[in-house]
Each structure stands twice: as C-alpha cells, then as structure tokens.
Amino acid sequence: MNRSTAPTIHLPLSAEGAAYFVDEAGSKGSLGKHFVTAAVRTTDPDKLSRTIKACRDKNRFTNADEIKFSKVNRNSQPILSEIFSEAVSSGCTFGAFVLDKRHFDPWSDRDQWQGHLFATDRLLRGLITRREVSVALLDHIDVPAGISYGDELAASLNNRFGNKRVITAVSLDSRTCPALQVADLLASAVFHTRKKIEDHGLERFLEDRTPKARLAKDIAAALGETHFADCRTHLLKLQTSHKKSLTELTKAHHEVV
C-alpha cells in the first residue's frame, strides 16, 4: 500500500497512552513451584523516572546501589520501601500474574523464551484495556538469533485483542531503567511472599522481621494489601493461574456462600 492510499488513523483525545514496565521473579526449573511476572503501568513514565531519582537523591542512594529485591539489606530496606511507595504516589497502577507450575508449566513443552512470552502475555492481556494504546518495556531475556521477542509479544497480544492496542514492545537492561527495577520489587515481593506462606504458613510470614519480609510487607501495604492474595483493586490486579479461571473460582465461591 502506497502512502496515498494508506488509511488515516484518528485517535480520540480521550485515548490514553500507557507504558507497561515488566519484570519477573521465580524459577523456570522443575523444582520451583511459582513464577511471577509483574508490571508497573503509568501514563507518565517521565514523571515516574524523576520521582524515583528524587527519592534516590534524598536518601543518597546512588546509581551504584541497584534497586533490586534480592539485594535488600537492613540499611537499604527502608529506602526501597520508600521508592515503591513514591511510585504508587506518582499515579502508577500495578499488575502481577502468578504462574503455579503444578497446574501448568509452559516450559515443559516450549523453548525457554516462549515460556517467558506465555507468562508475560497472560499478565498484560489482563491489564491492557480497549481505551488505551500501550508500549511494553521488558527486562531483557535471551532469545535465539533472528527472534524479536518484543515483536512476538506484541503480535501475540494484538492477535488476541483483535486490534492493535500494543504499539510496540522492547527489551531493556533493567540496570539502566529505574521503572523496571520497581517492577522487579513487585514481582520479587509477590514471589517471596507466596513461597514463604506456602513453606511456613501465613502467621510465620507476618511475624518475619528479615529485610526481605519487611520489604515484601511494605510493598503489599503500599498497595492496600497484606500478603498478596489474588485481587482486583484500583491499584493492583493480581491473578494466579488455576485449572479454572479466577472469574470461575470467584463465582463458585459466591455460590457456596
């Protein structure tokens, strides 16, 4: 199609442009039970980046100090908790998808990158609405030569939607992208919480005073939650994979009650 015959696209002024920063946590191996993908959604990514920088500067948390859940210690925990709270205050919303591999393991019959794509696709199609056009910014994963992970993900999502809601998707180095580091905090907090509760019970987790447990509980509290149970609120949409969908499980629960 040449330029003269190409259709003109008009978007209403009410259409939102959203950026989704996506990171993940958990095990892709046969021993791990859970894998978590999480997203930070913002309509103002520049504001988010500047908010994180201001919080870093205030706490003298230099660029050499990475915002990463796995590296949290007693000194950095309050700062990371504050950074996440500031991201919430800046107007971001959040999503997480917990893949319970005992129900379904996408790595059992797929290449590793395709398992990642499955989990990220499930996360984003539960978040992206028909009232927006979006860009997905992803933590880098290895793919075979000749594969564009971003294009594969965008095509998968748009084919499911039946229209072009995802304009593009790109892989970045999370060490250079503060918003991806905030997504890491959420993904890792959900993973840590689910694992500890399954291993030791909810009461033990709520009493845990280690830096990771404190950070995970602070992140949950910033989102109005206590221990990352499945939910759909104005701040957080969190869903676990089940043999039945979350909608079916919720409906069944209400019928029993």
From TrEMBL:
InterPro entries: DUF3800. Pfam families: DUF3800. This is DUF3800 domain-containing protein. It comes from Corynebacterium jeddahense.
